[in-house]
Amino acid sequence: MRIIGIDPGTLFTGYGIIDFKNNEIKHVVSGVIKIQAFKEQAKRLEVIYSEINSIIKKYKPQEFALETAFYGKNVQSTLKIGYARGVSMLVAIHNKLPMKEYSPREVKKAVVGNGAASKDQVQFMIKKLLCLNNSKIKFDETDALAVAVCHAFKITSPTKRSKTWKEFVEDNPEKIWG
């Protein structure tokens, strides 16, 4: 299965495509879409849409994974990332790709084993998992690859995670003492 991961941003949008088959992960392509600092936000969004669409047409992924917005102290930054996320979702929808979103914490936990991992730790693990020897790889790129890897791990996980204790009990009656 071919998966594209997106780390959205209005100045830099990271993308990463992996192949995942028989529990083996292979790097296909990754990079950063650098958006010129156009004054109009709409022009930036058009570039993001166009570039991601071209990447999808060229590499033909079957799944689309996207990092959710992280709310920091700056509301304007959060809104701008939301615009980039919306445009990314639209590209997935127009290309009829199944889409899943993952929080930064969820991605870090899947890749590093720690939801509070640093960008350096995520980058290190992605380089190891995908055998990337290029030391010049950008954080936006490794973040996007991490989103794709997280998706691969989540869709092939043999165990279903329960959201509540009640759901856990219903899903696992053999684990309850009578």
Core attributes:
single chain, globular, alpha/beta, 6 helices, Nucleotidyltransferase, domain 5, 5-stranded mixed sheet
Précis, in short:
The chain has 178 residues and is an alpha/beta fold.
List the helices and strands and how they pair.
Blueprint: E1 2-7, E2 12-21, E3 24-34, H1 41-59, E4 63-67, H2 75-94, E5 99-102, H3 104-112, H4 119-129, H5 139-155, H6 165-171
Parallel strand pairs: 1-4, 4-5
Antiparallel strand pairs: 1-2, 2-3
Helix pairs in contact: 1-2, 3-5, 4-5
Description of the structure:
- This protein is of the alpha/beta class.
- It has one domain (2-175): Nucleotidyltransferase, domain 5, CATH 3.30.420.
- Helix content is 47%, strand content 20%.
- The protein is built from 6 helices and 5 strands; from the N terminus they run βββαβαβαααα.
- It has helices at residues 41-59, 75-94, 104-112, 119-129, 139-155, 165-171; strands spanning 2-7, 12-21, 24-34, 63-67, 99-102.
- The chain has a 5-stranded mixed beta sheet.
- The chain is globular, with a radius of gyration of 17 Å.
- The termini are far apart.
- Mg(2+) 2 binds at residue 67.
- Keywords: Cytoplasm, DNA damage, DNA recombination, DNA repair, DNA-binding, Endonuclease, Hydrolase, Magnesium, Metal-binding, Nuclease.
- GO terms for molecular function: crossover junction DNA endonuclease activity; DNA binding; magnesium ion binding.
- Its cofactor is Mg(2+).
